[in-house]
Write a structure and sequence with these properties.
Elements: H1 7-24, E1 28-33, H2 36-39, E2 48-54, H3 60-74, E3 84-90, H4 91-95, E4 104-107, E5 114-117, H5 123-132, E6 134-137, H6 150-170, H7 178-197, H8 203-213, H9 219-227, H10 232-235, H11 242-262, H12 268-280
Parallel strand pairs: 2-3
Antiparallel strand pairs: 1-2, 1-6, 3-4, 4-5
Helix pairs in contact: 1-3, 6-7, 6-11, 6-12, 7-8, 7-9, 7-11, 8-9, 11-12
């Protein structure tokens, strides 16, 4: 099993994969790290995003056994064990982007029980798993996922960029803490960078690109945001700096306006169409 730079995380992952094998038997296909541990930029504050692949939809008894497993893993004496996040993909659902949006059995960060959710069933997750996943067990992910058209990746990012931005602007209050203020700025830097490159990179890569590609007036906000990223358990309970939060809302508006310009590879017309659609119907598009 390939490992991360963190020995205590590796121990948690070893127990997790062994538990999956025991719970699923011949239904187990593979387990993969994605997110920041796939694309890079991981550190001691990162969530541990995983994708587990199974032969077919989980049975009731398999789900019950996995619930026991995740409860046990959550109680391990390691902070990593409380920050696992991922879904169980049946092979046929993972294979094609045509199955995006189908609910999967999902473990949320900070939780100990699986629930049905579409959270991981996205084009972005498929692309990340196929191109950059760390294989904990199982075949190469490129053997499990069909090639993903760049246009499909960009379209999903555009829809997320506009829809999520509208959600935040409509009601900023739930996002007015240090964690979300940082998360929003870095996420929008990364989404713009992804539109430009047609790939998914780390938040660090997106932030560094944004400081050279975007209007220089945003550089100070981006630097302050990265500096305030550590200790998410504490920062989510602390109010955001009022000036930085106001500036963050302005950054969302700016990024939504710039999205078409950074959508490369002939995707600019799609970006304009999405922006026009959301201007007419802010609630359209998939939820992030």
């Amino acid at each position: 099993m390939r490992t991360t730079p963190y020995s205590d995380l590796n121990a948690v992952l070893q127990e997790l994969v062994a538990g999956m094998r025991a719970a699923l038997g011949t239904s187990f296909v593979g387990a993969y790290l994605q997110g920041s541990f796939g694309v890079g930029g991981d550190d001691e504050h990162s969530d541990v995003d995983f994708a587990a692949v199974v032969e077919e939809e989980l049975s009731v008894s398999q789900v019950e056994t996995l619930q026991i497993l995740h409860e046990r893993i959550f109680r391990l004496d390691s902070s990593w064990a409380q920050h696992l996040e991922g879904s169980y993909f049946p092979k046929d659902i993972l294979r094609s982007c045509s199955r995006v949006g189908t609910p999967l059995w999902y473990l949320d960060n900070g939780h100990r029980q699986l629930e049905r959710s579409t959270h991981c069933n996205t084009v972005v997750v498929r692309w990340t798993v196929r191109e950059h996943a760390v294989a904990l067990a199982g075949p190469l992910p490129a053997l499990l996922i069909d090639p993903i058209p760049i246009e499909a990746l960009r379209q999903e990012i555009l829809e997320t960029l506009h829809r999520w931005g509208q959600e935040i602007l409509d009601d900023p209050r739930p996002f007015n803490n240090r964690f979300y203020q940082s998360f929003i700025v870095l996420s929008y830097c990364r989404m713009l960078h992804s539109l430009h490159t047609g790939t998914i990179g780390s938040k660090r890569t997106g932030a560094e690109w944004a400081k050279t590609a975007l209007d220089p007036s945003w550089t100070a906000l981006i630097d302050r945001t990265w500096g305030g990223r550590p200790n998410p358990e504490l920062s989510v309970r602390q109010p955001a700096d009022p000036a930085d939060f106001t500036r963050t809302l302005e950054f969302i508006r700016y990024a939504r306006g710039e999205a078409a310009r950074y959508a490369a590879g002939g995707c600019a017309d799609t970006a304009v169409a999405v922006a026009q659609r959301d201007a007419l119907d802010p609630q359209s598009g998939p939820r992030d």
